[in-house]
Amino acid sequence: MASVHSSASPKLDRRESLDSVGEMLKRGAVPADGGMKEPDFPLARGIPKSMRIRLGLKDRLIFWLLVGVLHALSLLPDFILYKLGEAGGLIAHRLDRRHTRIGIRNLEIAFPEKSDAERRRILRASYINLGWTGAEYVRLGGFFYRRLARRVTYNRLDIWNNLTPRYPGKGALILTAHFGDFELLPAGHALHGFQITVVHHTQRFAAGDALVTFIRERVGVRTIRKHTAAREMLRSLKRGEIIGIPLDQNAKRSEAIWVPFFGELAATPSGFDRLAMMAGAPVVPVFIVRQPDGRSHVIEIFEEIPQQRTGAREADTLMNTARYQKAIEEMVRKHPEQWLWTHRRYRTRPVSGSPSLYD
């Protein structure tokens, strides 16, 4: 099985700031070594009316109240905002007993060799990461959100430039996860000048769902709603657009295939690989990694994952999906403090009626 962490040339390993790259994109300039150029992926078309959010009066009022609160909080300086986020994460870690139990169980499955104290340290750090992510979400949803571009750099950005000549007229599927500041990943990419589309699962809280969509779309991220937009995703890929999909959460039995994740069979959506198959699109692992200072981030781009296409569709999808999960697992092993451990990743069991792993 090919690893997504294959070695690259020195050119591919350099990190380039969003400020300098953004200016180059605006000017249409290309460095002498050909390392950067404006991508050929076209801007997304308008969102179909059937996918737009319809809010009643009450939800509209709540939506605008939330927008106002985010803008007010965004006036706080960083040293206060990040401290508030960290405090919120630590309070949640202390009080959220249900999800901390889930997190510890997931860590026991993933890292049986680690001590209980080490697993608890990782979980606590992951809550702090979520708190900082909340602080950055305030920044993203409030005033001066474009300044976040200064905190995001790229590693191996050249990989994007190689996709267009290798896959002319086709888009790309970004394989990602709820890792690092996962909301900043598409936003940072869009603020950098790339068009990106994300697949979003509609939430029951209509005003909150509208808020998420509003924040994403104003920075240039297009949203396609899950379960109602398979055709739209396919059309987008065939137009040469980029679609980002996290593939690290439990799938319903009707949608699932079971592949290893940290040594345990995990229900994983089969539709991701079927979409790649129908569109003929490459699958590229991309993750945003929080740096040791807690405030800056690197978008790590890896070489596309080889896809098995023998004609035996079920077997091919099973093999490819296992590769996708392996790529996510390798990233989580590198930075376990940055993954969302509190999700019941193994909730759906391979055999119906089997005992839950979370009892």
How many domains, in number, for the residues?
1
**Structural class by SSE content:** alpha/beta
User: Strands across the major sheet, in which order?
Assistant: 1-2-10-9-3-6-4-5
- Mean of residue pLDDT values: 84
Radius of gyration: 20 Å
Give the N-terminus to C-terminus distance in angstroms. Answer: 34 Å
- Helices, by number, come to 12
Question: What characteristic shape results from the CA principal axes?
Answer: globular
Main beta sheet: 8 strands, mixed
The fraction of residues assigned to DSSP E strands is 5-15%
Kindly list the characteristics that best describe this protein.
8-stranded mixed beta sheet, single chain, 359 residues, alpha/beta, disordered N terminus, two-stranded antiparallel ribbon
Task: Describe the overall structure.
The protein is an alpha/beta fold and 359 residues long. It has one domain (10-28, 55-338). Helices cover 44% and strands 14% of the residues. It is built from 12 helices and 10 strands. The protein has helices spanning 10-13, 18-27, 57-73, 78-95, 97-110, 116-141, 158-166, 184-191, 206-218, 230-238, 271-279, 313-334; strands at 15-17, 152-155, 172-176, 196-200, 221-225, 242-246, 256-261, 264-269, 283-290, 297-301. A hairpin with a 6-residue loop joins β9 (283-290) and β10 (297-301). α5 (97-110) packs across α6. The relative contact order is 0.17. The model is unreliable at 1-51 (pLDDT under 50).
